[in-house]
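Chapter review: from sequence to fold.
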Amino acid sequence: MKFYQSKLLNNYSKLTHAFTCKESNNLAFHVNDIKKNVIQNHKHLAKELNYDYKTLVHMKQIHSNIVKIIDENDNFDNPPTCDALITNKKKTPLMVMVADCSPLLFFDPKQNVIATAHAGRAGAFENIIQNVILSFIHDFHSDIKDIIVSIGPAICQNCYEINNEIYQEVKERKLDFAVSKKGKKIYLDIRKILLKQLHVMGIKEKNIEISEICNCCHADTFYSYRKNNNTGRFAGIIML
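The token string follows.
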């Protein structure tokens, strides 16, 4: 089974992580797939990455900036409603599912804390990164300088055309540094917004990794909602 890995996170043997692709098949339950098939896909993935699929915590993602600290009620059959997960529990894999949005994996090797986040346009606009970093600091006593962030494959600026209504919102939020125009068309670079937010929060440049792979340009390898509205989801996954 093919996975994409973070060079930064690969430096830590106590950590399991991966960005999946179409080879892992669809991992989401809300995209008109047959439930038993999705569960089987999860079982295959769990076997490949050596964890019990029942311990996996995924999310009911709602394009918010809500961060959930994992507790005993969170598991495969009871996913919390949020767009980021954080924990220091071992053998508790966290998963974010995407099909154009950015999958983010976070790790603090000093405090042994992991997190994952879902950042599409809404997550970027509402600065979900800030909330995740603040949870590291306030809830798990992390030091900013120790936090590592890897952003997986996501839609690139050249594929992400926006309308004028969204452009007006971009300007109101003072995010127009991430906009480019080609003729009458307007394009948004979500990666650029996320990178700036990481810098503003004080994450060191050497601790940031952003994949240059566009899932929309490579829709033969990854799922892309822009390419096909009726599509599955690939994932970012991380576990202590």
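Two observations follow directly from the output. The domain at 9-158+190-239 is CATH 3.60.140.10 (CNF1/YfiH-like putative cysteine hydrolases). The chain has a mean pLDDT of 95.
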